[in-house]
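Minutes, project check-in
Item: structure for the 342-residue chain
Input as provided by the requester:
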Amino acid sequence: MTDCGILTLTIAALMPLLSFAQDTLHATDSMRRRPVVVVEHKQRSFPLMVPSGDYSGITYLGNQRYAVVSDKSAADGFFIFTIDIDTVNGQVMNVHNEGFFSDGQPNRDQEGIAYVPFSNTLYVSGEADNSIREYTLDGKHTGRRLQIPDVFREATPNHGFESLTYNAVTHRFWTTTESTLKSDGGQATPLYPVRNRLRFQSFDDSLQPAQQYFYEMDEPLARSVAATYAMGVSGLCAMDDGSLLVLEREFYVSPGKLGSFVNCKLYITHPATSQEGQLLDKVLLTKFSTRLSLFSRAIANYEGMCLGPELAGGRRVLILISDSQGQYKGVLKDWFKTLVLE
């Protein structure tokens, strides 16, 4: 056989392997593709339209309507807001409150909320009872809830299920505690600057626990004694490709109040490309800070986020909402902020 014949056979034999390698490369590239924050809009407040609250979670219902929870509302339930967003640039134009929906049961420190389209119901996480319950759109309990693994019973008070999200393409809920569980280590403070180690837990449509992964936050930036301090993941957003947007939030209140700040970092992580039970990799998409000073009262404790409508050109808008502690002493505001993803 000639050298050319040998070469032809060799190439033919390698073609399936080359094709497999190319497919694998394409799959890897696809998994590595991530949204890019192309526009970060300035935050806006609408005090004449939005009642003062402790807004901690938001989810998109469609047609400019959103369900929003406040962790100190008069009862267990949620608000419905209409949020007008410029369909070209993604800026929030106006917000209108349609009302509060509840069946009158006691407030349970509602923190996260997620809409499930196929059942047309909402799920709300509560820190007081550390449960995630289902509601109809008029605020009534259905009696259904996510089946929480026992390890989450270790959550310390006010550090439970802060975040909740659901994706209708992947059919997965995702949640996590705000700070580290007792068996997983210490919780970060300015004087104990460790990395919070959290468990990201998913659930399937049967409400049963599915995959669980570890996630490690950045170290605190604050290094001084705080009057109030909150360091944790305050928001999750499940994407169609199985990835998760993660909002890391550090809220530092100085003893004298002036000089207080909130640092926010938006990461993306890909559980589908990771081994269950392992530590997730993360990539920073953007970060921003707000502060309280003599010249600025723009400090904003962002606790909730969700995807909004698709914009012109196929871009997506990510909506963030802040907890003003009931517009604390007339200083804090109920801020809304949008990021445009491409």
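Outcome recorded: Confidence is low (pLDDT under 50) at residues 1-32.
No further action items on this chain.
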